Amino acid sequence: MTYQAFYRVYRPQSFRDMSGQTHVKKTLQNALQSDHTTHAYLFSGPRGTGKTSTAKIFAKALNCERAPIAEPCNECATCKSITENGHPDVIEFDAASNSRVEEIREIIEKVRFAPASARFKVYIIDEVHMLSTSAFNALLKTLEEPPAHAKFILATTEPHKIPATIISRCQRFDFKRLSSIDIVERMKVVLEDIERPYDEKALKVISQASAGGMRDALSMLDQVVSFSENEVKLEDALFVTGSISQDIFYRLVEHIQQKNVASVLGLLEELMNEGKDAVRLSEDLITFFRDLLLIQTAPDLGDLLELASNEEKFVQLANDFSLDTLYQYIDILSKTQQEMRFSLHSKVYLETALLKMVQTSQPAQVMNNHSEQSSTVHSQGLEAKVAQLESLVQQMQSMGGPVAVTESQTTSQRPRQKPQAGFKVPTGRVNEVLKIATKPAIQQIKSIWMDAVNQLTKSQQALLADSEPVAATDGVFVLKFKHEILCRMAAENKELAEQFKQVLVGLTNTFYEIVFVPEDDWNRIRTEFIRKHKEGTQPVSENVNVAGNEPEEPVQSFLDIEQHEEEVDDTVVSEAQKLFGKDFIEIEE
């Protein structure tokens, strides 16, 4: 028998074998047990998170000879046939290579026929977002009124490309990226099954490189096993995945702490000569600084560390930096990573980021010394003022009357209060987004908006309660706030910004920059932008994406959307006036 890859051999065959996705498993098992399954399901999520495997397990449980049952038995003839991809009533369809309407019509024509031997006909359509508009329209009627014996399972990595009419007819399940712990545990099962010794640190490296995808992790593990001789070692995993050892990160951050520019750039040059990717290195640096934050703020959560460890040297390194400095490093690297996406000189951007970090580095001990010095100076100033007041009192007592104090003295002694600055609106940045904003981009943000907000903490959700995304490009979107104070608080909350960006990356596979703007300022900027465009003074890039390349299909720009909404409003008003008369119509903005 020919060799099969790990991700094929160790594909889960029952719900209990699946890693993660507890919310999906529990809901489907309850529906199977009670025999209350619906006719259509939509499985969406990143690649390698178990969508197709779950669909096959669900199909087996539906048609198992012992049904209704929460787990397929994998022993009856039907279960074995489905496992071997040989059952005529479970049809897998790849929409990526069969996107035309003719292929869908051929399936639809056979839906009405009863199953050959199973209880249900199950259609698994993978990468369903690749279907053409005509194919979706042909599928729509069948999804709306399917035969009682037909079940549809649609799987996709890009749910925002599926028409809302299709989504509304399906039960939707969002698959999340798998945790590092789940991936490591699954790899341990595989290695123990093939009786191969391993170093757990090597498995953590593979897990971190897989970015939450089990299939990617097992593929890399397969490659590492082939590369290694007798044992899966850390060095083998680092070499195969292109990752960097924690000791290299320790040396690099230590040079940054010591402000040794030559050593920082020299070490970076060595890594580049070894073939490391600058974008990947920036991602790993963000993860390493995240680990240092975790060591400093929650030392008990050592299991969540990815690149660092609880060794004494890493604990000491973490405590040498203040929390503000670590947050600042992560912010610098995040912005740099965003700029790298549109440049061919990613190494230069990373060098610049490291130089910024060297210049802004301020260890915690230095900051403590600085605060102690400031406190000493402040206390000395208070003592001097007390001594001056005591001398004035003695002078008053000796003279027997009041003592005149000049205005210059009182003015110099009274500390001046700094005026509180309001929120600085990024007008220029908003205008830049509006020039290249498209309808698909803002639709993608709005489609996952509630899912993204629900993954934040309660306090962070409260800040975003009255916010709304109003314009977007492929990597930036404008977030409007009803109240200026909430906008300012959200913009100044670095922890919220970083966590929210990571949540959006998990849901869209895109790293977004967020532009905060109050509602009043948004209305002003939007109105001015539209006015300048109509006057011909504001250039707008139509049908051009962020990278400047022409897309395959024309996209609807921000101004097109606004003009379309105005035309719709005018049509509604005119129709109402025709029906009821102008005297009975009152128009409110």
From TrEMBL:
One of its GO terms (molecular function) is DNA-directed DNA polymerase activity. It is an enzyme of class 2 (transferase). Residues 37-179 form the AAA+ ATPase domain. It holds the Pfam family DNA_pol3_gamma3. Keywords: ATP-binding, DNA replication, DNA-directed DNA polymerase, Metal-binding, Nucleotide-binding, Nucleotidyltransferase, Transferase, Zinc. It catalyses: DNA(n) + a 2'-deoxyribonucleoside 5'-triphosphate = DNA(n+1) + diphosphate. Belongs to the DnaX/STICHEL family. This is DNA-directed DNA polymerase.
